[in-house]
Amino acid sequence: MQGNIACAEGALAAGCTFFAGYPITPSTEVAEHMAAKLPKRNGCFIQMEDEIASMAAIIGAAWTGVRAMTATSGPGFSLMMENIGYAVMSETPCVLVNVQRGGPSTGQPTMAAQGDMMQVRFGSHGDFSIIALSPSTVQECFELTAEAFNLADRFRCPVFVMADEVIGHMRERITIPDSVQIVRTKPLKEDMLPFTPEEDLIPGFAAFGTGRKIPVTGLTHNEKGYPDSTNPARHDALVRRLVDKVENARNQIADFEIVNEDAEYVFVCYGSPVRTVQEVVQRTKTPGTGYLKLRIVWPFPEDLLHRFPNVKAFIVPELNLGMISREIERHVCVPVISAGKIGGDLHSPDELIAIVERLRSGGAS
Q1: Which of 253, 283, 298 represents a domain boundary (last residue)?
Q2: Segment 174-217, tens digit of pLDDT
């Protein structure tokens, strides 16, 4: 199955019944598959006039209680940013698949990149936190897209599947289970206001049409949902809660794989570069090389970096000029070697092996 189709199938398995989007390479197959499948499942597919409207449509659909999704790539992702901020502020659970391509601007529509990894975290204005998953196989396209819906409902926030063109367009054999685990939003308790947080900092959810009056605004608001945008204390409390409900659960959210905790040279990888790293570690077959594979990149699981007691350097191969390597540098005291690459080609095993050999011989970069 193709990676993009696996994303769509993962969404369908998770109970997605609404898709709104606008075709854009290299994500279009996600929309095409949903267009073919949703009507047969009593779902709704809408091709919108642009990506701004697409994001708005899934927010509106989510508030009716359905699971809603869109898919896009670089330029479309940029257009969605304002409404992504609205989804954060209004605590709307929804899923966005971004099959990344080379940029900036129109860039390389048919070539792979991971250049949106900082945009997804900081692209909308203001302070907020999000959850972003990154598949490295077609199997993970299915599994992580399905899981994205559970995370969106659990934390009441937009959740992102940050694939790339290589994974989106490659074909691999996958296993599709008979069913997947489904975790829905907590219901809003009868005696609670719609935006009053519970102990986990997340309020219960009441869909439109269930009898509760719930204003949904992008303005700073009180527990009733009414705007209260000139009160510094109100804004501070609200935004801190929106951040903390995700950041405080970073260890619960983390999804990763570690190979060789005793390694001296540790690759940190996500998405398609994982495949090259696995080849390198298998080929070198030395106790000095290992890797940390991140299936969930945001919130960034910095505690995992301290699971390597003998590490002399972290090596970060990514299809950008060092976005996540800068995040790693914030949390460690050993050298972080950025192996960023742009242009559309994956790293070759020999390129990464050369970095390890240079470090072993005393080179610092």
Answers
A1: 253
A2: 999 999 999 999 999 999 999 999 999 999 999 999 999 999 99
pLDDT of 77 over the 80 cut: yes
Same domain, yes or no: 53 and 199: yes
Domain limits at 325?
255-360
In a domain, 365, yes or no: no
Q: Give the CATH number for residue 140.
A: 3.40.50.970
Taking only the tens place, the pLDDT of each residue in 306-344 is 999 999 999 999 999 999 999 999 999 999 999 999 999
- Distance, in Å, from the CA atom of 291 to the CA atom of 29, rounded to the nearest integer, reads 32
Length, in residues, of the chain: 365
Contact (CB, 8 A) for 66 and 58: no
Given phi > 0 = left and psi -120 to 50 = alpha, else beta, which region is 315? Answer: beta
Residues 28, 253, 329, CA angle at the centre, nearest 5°? 90
Question: CA-to-CA distance for 24 and 1, rounded, in angstroms?
Answer: 20
DSSP state of 257: E
Asked if residue 272 and residue 249 are part of one domain, the reply reads no
Question: What is the β-pairing status of strands 94-102 and 67-72?
Answer: parallel
Q: Pairing state of beta strands 16-21 and 44-47?
A: parallel
Per-residue pLDDT for 143 more than 90? Answer: yes
